[in-house]
Amino acid sequence: MLAEHGADVLAIFADGLDGGNASFEKAPPTWEQFTTAKLEEHRFVALDGDRVVGWVAASPTSSREVYAGVVEDALYVRAGEQGRGVGTALMARLLESTDAVGIWTVCAGIFPENVVWLERRTDRP
């Protein structure tokens, strides 16, 4: 994720918030707030050509050293792009990057309205 993706990332975030099923936040952050809160090495976008169709990022869950291996994810897919595997690809990339540096827990809050993602998982018991 580069600064040039910022406007698209925040627009997708805002669309998710407007839908009411993405976050408890009331408004998206500024780009500066976003980049400060998210871990730089764990921020990715999905592109369709030059168009950002989704993004994922991780943030620390705590500043306490004992939680250094725990992050919280945020994943948003542009309206109209769901169902194409964008979210799955983004999550795979995030897990690859967190595994590479020894992060052992990625916390995710999935709203019940996003049950389709859960139903598509093939690695669940």
TrEMBL record:
N-acetyltransferase domain segment(s): 1-125
One Pfam entry name: Acetyltransf_1
Coiled coil: none
Entry protein name: N-acetyltransferase domain-containing protein
Record organism: Aeromicrobium halocynthiae
Phylogenetic lineage: Bacteria, Bacillati, Actinomycetota, Actinomycetes, Propionibacteriales
